[in-house]
Amino acid sequence: MLSSARLAPPLLNARRAAVICVLHGVAFGLAIDISCCADMRVCARDTQFSVKEVDIGLAADVGTLSRLPKIVGSFSWVKDVCLSARVFGADEALAVGYVSQVHPTKAAALDAALKAAELIASKSPVAVQGTKELLNHARDHSVAESKWEIIEPGARLVR
């Protein structure tokens, strides 16, 4: 089970299609690990989140400690929730940028995610895939390096 849990987030993160995660109810531990790999996260208002690993004597080693700071952009907040294992709600998740939308119910959150998926699916697959790849590259590289990521493939086509 643990090896499968370690493989799931990287495989999800490597998907070429946009990945939308709907969270509801209790989203602790592995739910955070997996949702950190999604391109978009939406949730129901009653969702409770926590990076609980320190409560059971573990470090969150499936990627949350690497991905969550890049998602929310605040190491202080990430250290707050990861070191304390405190529970936080949907409004806080929205305020820090962990989720992009909060909906009144699970059904409404699922409906919003499906509408977003339909909208994205109506776009050029090449444009969506390229945009996702460039955004993922930009997340981990400087602006200058990201510009070369765009220019270099185009230059190769011209040669």
How would you describe this structure to a colleague?
The chain has 159 residues and is α/β, with parallel strands linked by helices. It folds into two domains: 2-121, 2-enoyl-CoA Hydratase, Chain A, domain 1, CATH 3.90.226; 125-158, no CATH class. The chain has helices at residues 2-13, 30-35, 64-72, 75-84, 90-96, 106-121, 125-140, 143-158, and strands at residues 20-23, 26-28, 40-44, 48-50, 88-89, 101-103. It is globular and about 45 Å long.
Strand and helix layout:
Elements: H1 2-13, E1 20-23, E2 26-28, H2 30-35, E3 40-44, E4 48-50, H3 64-72, H4 75-84, E5 88-89, H5 90-96, E6 101-103, H6 106-121, H7 125-140, H8 143-158
Parallel strand pairs: 1-3, 2-4, 3-6
Antiparallel strand pairs: 4-5
Features:
three-stranded mixed β-sheet, three-stranded parallel β-sheet, alpha/beta, 159 residues, single chain, 2 domains, 2-enoyl-CoA Hydratase, Chain A, domain 1, 8 helices, 58% helix
Compact description:
With 159 residues, the protein is α/β, with parallel strands linked by helices. The chain has helices spanning 2-13, 30-35, 64-72, 75-84, 90-96, 106-121, 125-140, 143-158, and strands at residues 20-23, 26-28, 40-44, 48-50, 88-89, 101-103.
